[in-house]
Amino acid sequence: MPDSRAASSPVPSSRLARLQRTVPGLLTAAAAVAASFLVHQLLPAVPVLTAAVVLGLLTANLPGTAAQAVGSWKPGLALAARKFLRLGIVLLGLKVSLVDIAGLGWTALLLIVALVLAAFAGTYIICRLFRLPGDEPVLIAAGFSICGVSAIGAMAAVRRTRTEETVVPVALVTLCGTLAIAALPLAGRVLDLPAEVFGAWAGASVHDVGQVVATAQTAGTAALAVAVVVKLARVVLLAPMTAAAGLLARRAEAQFPVQGKRPPLVPLFVLGFLALILVRTWGVLPEAALETAAVLQELLFAAALFALGAGIRVRTLFASGFRAAAAALTSWALISGLGLAAAVLLAG
């Protein structure tokens, strides 16, 4: 009589082998995350996520590590780029309280919705005018208008965009958001903006939550408080914007069927993001748990961004890199202008 355990053994052993292949890349990503935090400690003006992207770029293009990035490290880096980014998006929900956002009032909320839609449409048109390839226009538009890397990851999921196609949008949204940390406070002083107006401007125009905090805190606690709430109102729009993109993707799938599963209307990790928004709104988690989740989210994002950066080859980037950089800077100027107008209206 054959041993049933022997017949079932190949599946676990195959999974174990796949897991073992991810270990070198995951260990490399962990070391890069530690190095990113060290860079931030030594140079506080350099955000952790920016340091992670730069380290990834160096890893992909230096002679000593480039071969490893596409060799033994690749399975682990691919896992970090995909799964860690999505887990980070889920945890982002714990930063959003619907009570705080409702405190802005309906007029302000409608203005923020109009701002996000105008920024998305404007950025998409600019990227198309610069003839950016593939899904880059829609991914850059999502990242710049909603919530940076998180929006790029969610939009890529519903459009079934390959991970390799997200690296340029991720690099641009991270670097332009870092540019805002230096440029907006300088512009705010030149324009002599009140703290609340400057905070609303940062929240309305800077990409990632961490970049908003770094920008707004230069004008004090009043500016920071306004900036965070305005920014989180934009973050909430991640779910409806992703659902709209999923619906469009399904319609395109119906007209031009392809093999495989249909694109999801709303990815599971976005539903997790919404669920944790409700958890935060209900206030059932202690502050210590929220702080731990925030640290874990940054660790996950840093690992994902390092992995995405490690997929960028400079020679490949230059194929559309100059056009992409020009489109990103033009879009950043547009969103900064729209954000300043919205901030003035919110303060009024």
Q: Count the strands?
A: 0
Fraction of residues in helix? over 70%
Written as H for each helix and E for each strand, in order along the chain, the element string is HHHHHHHHHHHHHHHHH
What percentage of the residues does DSSP assign to strands (E)? under 5%
Give me the number of helical elements: 17
Rg from C-alpha positions? Answer: 21 Å
Low-confidence stretches: 4-9
Provide a quick synopsis of the model.
This protein is mostly helical. 80% of the residues lie in helices and 0% in strands. The chain has helices spanning 4-8, 10-42, 48-61, 63-69, 74-92, 98-102, 106-129, 136-147, 149-158, 167-191, 195-205, 209-216, 221-236, 238-255, 268-282, 287-309, 314-347.
Q: Can you characterise this structure?
A:
The chain is mainly α and 348 residues long. Helices cover 80% and strands 0% of the residues. Helix 2 (10-42) crosses helix 16. The termini are far apart.
